[in-house]
Task: inverse folding
């Protein structure tokens, strides 16, 4: 059996930040990183750009082999975790290897959630979560003239834009009646939607798919209302789900994801979880949620690494805040925190649909809860800090509402100089 | 040994919001006056009505890098920069989520993010700032150069928290090196353990504890003995307080200077006998509270002005005289190098301002800020004197802040009346004017400073 002090399962942002944090505190403890992927570390977030051709697959890697050597870390690829015994502190992988650990970080991320649609399992379709998916989708785009995208979340929207730019005739089917429902309100979503419509993408919102089937060389999608569409390519982008199927009988408690406390510790001893797989404190609610965004993975990975190494500088996780920076057709839509006001909150909107400009600020008790903009520059990191720190905006209220960018910069500058 | 890096520092109290830095940046980076291209932003604080800065800090643990999904941002450990690779960037803006300082921002003109790259070590914004609000701090270079040199003192010297004399001692003796003899007359410097404890020595070079009165004469004698045995290369160093320099130690120092004895004499001036209970010295500044210049119905702190020791040493025709403040350690290193060289020919004297958190009544975290404010108000002037080139201000402050800005940082001035503050302000101006008369102007090249002084 293999032995290691620190075992990290996964190889994207949460895993890599965990490694960094451990090494800052413990330069020598045996450390092994095992991933089911076959490549050096990369980010799922960059994959739409591999599909579009903007990023070459060899140029997106976040670490090279020398990095692991320099950090005295063993890097094992192509091995998926299949079973965990937290009592024995052993993890078994699908390559047959078992690793005994002292401290374990589960950063296994998420995989595409495949909706229970009749016929889908017999229909050829693409997803976009791994580098191999991206390379496969890029190849398929070259041969397709028509495409259907299921889901108007980030992956679906990026996919649709890339397909349209490649000259493919695209239809996007979304169950909700707006795009990007998790991040933007209806007004902002409409602006984003119209950019797609202007560029020839057929946006079919509020539509539910009844069934899919293979139809010769093509695929066919039939909606609940009876409409039927044919296309050369089907991209399923209906969200993701945490990869937790190896945890049966492991002693690690799960809900939607792996339940963790504010130091990313799971219910099992010496097991931590971070990133898209973790269900952690929600900043806005007395509840735990999976906030599967890159900045959260970075924060959680670092916290988990510090906790594993016993770093006393650890500050507990303040809670997940939804954040989205979305670039579409050369325009930017940015959202930090809540886009819909909770009870007792006030909203300040500055919307000019003719010029494609949108700004919405959600405040409660002079504290920022959320801000979203379309086509207006915004320092998302500053807004995130103002939310997390519950900075009192009372004294600068008018200035902030008139010019959140400059006022936010001044507020943050005054805290650190 | 890691690397230290140079930084751009911002002094909001000196900024008038002119925006020249932003224009210079936009020009340097895009050849345009459009401020959208500027990577530095000066903005107004709506509460205090002062100016604030948004600029990349080239963080040690940059979150923009951690949040970058495409490898376009990295941390260059050697240069300290966080370079941005346009070719790898996918314009996802996630880096802006990581930055809490507005240091990496979206430029709508280029449709890419942009950030400061320090202009290859010569930041255009700093050059354009005529108010001294932006400074390029190059102290990182010193760390990289001297960090591996041997520290001549033991670990764990027991100076008061916030005392910068330990900084002075360690930096100085690292530079001077092992080929030296060190004298530490009674005061804080031996008191914090440089001579040793319990039969153990505190320093890796021969160190001794002369009387307050005879530091310079003992070093002169030791130097002559070493010369006699053929070891004229050994450097004599004194690390003395202001009491051991300006008061009791004065006559032996004056004698050694007059004879041109070869030594490096450093005065750490904390304006009093601080380790014996904060009694006044001749170097204690006017108005200061000390235990022997108390504040009450009759007395309001010291009623005399401080002796201007570095000027007195300059008048001794030393090989080299300079003042220093550890807020400007680059400046100190330049002077230390010159002083070490001069001490091979004769007397080299360094007068280093050493704010004392215990005796001056300020927080232990404020020492360097007080050092800096001393210079910014001209209460402390940084200059050097060399025999052939005369006096030169190494960090002239032409637009000084009111001296009260310095005074209010120190508890020992808390009681000062308007009249006393006015006296100190007037004296501060007078001292600078006095020093200016010793300056040799560039056009007088070739004249000796004596002639220049006569004509002033």
Result:
């Amino acid at each position: 059996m293999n032995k290691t002090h620190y075992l990290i399962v996964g190889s994207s942002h949460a895993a890599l930040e965990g490694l960094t944090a451990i090494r800052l505190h413990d330069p020598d403890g045996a450390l092994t990183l095992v991933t089911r992927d076959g490549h050096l570390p990369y980010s799922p977030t960059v994959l739409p750009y591999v599909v579009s051709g903007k990023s070459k697959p060899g140029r997106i890697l976040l670490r090279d082999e020398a990095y692991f050597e320099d950090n005295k870390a063993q890097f094992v690829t192509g091995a998926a975790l299949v079973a965990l015994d937290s009592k024995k502190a052993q993890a078994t992988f699908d390559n047959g290897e078992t690793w005994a650990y002292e401290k374990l970080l589960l950063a296994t991320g998420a995989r595409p959630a495949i909706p229970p649609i009749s016929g889908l399992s017999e229909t050829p379709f693409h997803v976009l979560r791994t580098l191999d998916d991206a390379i496969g989708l890029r190849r398929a785009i070259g041969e397709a003239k028509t495409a259907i995208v299921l889901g108007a979340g980030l992956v679906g929207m990026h996919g649709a834009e890339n397909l349209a730019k490649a000259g493919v005739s695209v239809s996007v089917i979304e169950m909700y009646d707006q795009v990007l429902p998790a991040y933007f309100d209806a007004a902002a979503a409409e602006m984003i939607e119209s950019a797609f419509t202007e560029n020839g993408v057929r946006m079919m919102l509020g539509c539910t798919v009844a069934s899919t089937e293979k139809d010769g060389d093509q695929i066919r999608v039939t909606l609940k209302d009876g409409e039927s569409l044919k296309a050369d390519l089907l991209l399923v982008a209906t969200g993701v789900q945490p990869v937790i199927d190896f945890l049966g009988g492991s002693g690690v408690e799960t809900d939607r994801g792996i339940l963790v406390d504010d130091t990313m510790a799971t219910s099992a001893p010496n097991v931590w979880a971070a990133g898209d797989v973790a269900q952690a404190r929600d900043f806005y609610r007395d509840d735990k949620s999976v906030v599967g965004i890159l900045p959260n993975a970075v924060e959680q990975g670092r916290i988990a690494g510090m906790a594993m190494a016993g770093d006393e500088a650890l500050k507990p996780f303040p809670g997940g805040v939804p954040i989205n920076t979305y670039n579409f057709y050369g325009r930017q839509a940015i959202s930090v925190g809540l886009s819909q006001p909770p009870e007792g909150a006030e909203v300040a909107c500055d919307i000019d649909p003719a010029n494609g400009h949108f700004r919405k600020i959600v405040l409660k008790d002079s504290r920022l809860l959320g801000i979203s903009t379309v086509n207006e520059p915004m320092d998302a990191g500053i807004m995130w800090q103002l939310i997390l720190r519950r900075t009192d905006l009372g004294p600068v209220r008018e200035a902030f509402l008139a010019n959140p960018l400059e006022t936010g910069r001044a507020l943050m500058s005054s805290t650190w100089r | 040994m890691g690397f230290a890096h140079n930084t751009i520092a911002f002094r909001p109290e000196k900024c008038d919001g002119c925006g020249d830095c932003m224009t210079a940046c936009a020009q340097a980076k895009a050849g345009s006056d459009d401020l959208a291209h500027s990577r530095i932003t000066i903005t107004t604080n709506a509460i205090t009505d002062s100016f604030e800065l948004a600029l990349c800090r080239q963080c040690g643990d940059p979150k923009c890098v951690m949040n970058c999904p495409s490898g376009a941002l990295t941390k260059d450990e050697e240069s300290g920069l966080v370079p941005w690779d346009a070719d790898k960037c996918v314009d996802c803006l996630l880096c802006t989520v990581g930055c809490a300082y507005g240091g990496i921002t979206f430029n709508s003109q280029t449709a890419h993010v942009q950030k400061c790259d320090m202009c290859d070590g010569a930041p255009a914004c700093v050059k354009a700032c005529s108010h001294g609000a932006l400074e390029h701090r190059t102290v990182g270079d010193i760390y990289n150069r001297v960090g591996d040199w041997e520290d001549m003192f033991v670990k764990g010297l027991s100076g008061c928290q916030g005392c910068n004399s330990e900084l002075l001692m360690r930096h100085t003796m690292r530079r001077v090196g092992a080929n030296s003899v060190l004298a530490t007359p009674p005061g804080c410097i031996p008191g914090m353990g440089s001579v040793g404890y319990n039969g153990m020595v505190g320093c890796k070079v021969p160190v001794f504890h002369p009387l307050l009165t005879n530091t310079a004469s003992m070093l002169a004698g030791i130097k002559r003995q070493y010369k006699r045995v053929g070891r004229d290369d050994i450097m004599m160093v004194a690390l003395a307080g202001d009491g051991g320099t300006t008061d009791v130690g004065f006559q032996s120092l004056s004698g050694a200077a007059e004879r041109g004895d070869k030594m490096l004499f450093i005065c750490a001036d904390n304006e009093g006998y601080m380790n014996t209970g904060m009694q006044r010295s001749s170097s204690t500044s006017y108005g200061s509270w000390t235990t022997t210049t108390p504040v009450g119905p009759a007395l309001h702190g010291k009623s005399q002005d401080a002796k201007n020791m570095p000027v007195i040493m300059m008048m001794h025709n030393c090989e080299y005289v300079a003042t220093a403040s550890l807020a400007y350690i680059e400046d100190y290193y330049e002077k230390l190098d010159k002083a070490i060289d001069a001490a091979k020919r004769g007397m080299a004297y360094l007068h280093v301002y050493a704010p004392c958190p215990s005796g001056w009544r300020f927080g232990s975290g404020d020492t360097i800020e007080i050092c800096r404010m001393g210079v910014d108000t001209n209460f402390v002037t940084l200059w050097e004197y060399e025999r052939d080139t005369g006096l030169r201000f190494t960090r002239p402050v032409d637009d000084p802040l009111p001296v009260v800005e310095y005074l209010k940082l120190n508890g020992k001035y808390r009681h000062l009346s308007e009249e006393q503050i006015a006296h100190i302000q007037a004296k501060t101006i007078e001292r600078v004017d006095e020093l200016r008369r010793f300056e040799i102007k560039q056009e007088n090249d070739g004249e000796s400073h004596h002639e220049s002084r006569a004509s002033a």
Remarks:
- The first strand of chain B starts at residue 7 and ends at 10.
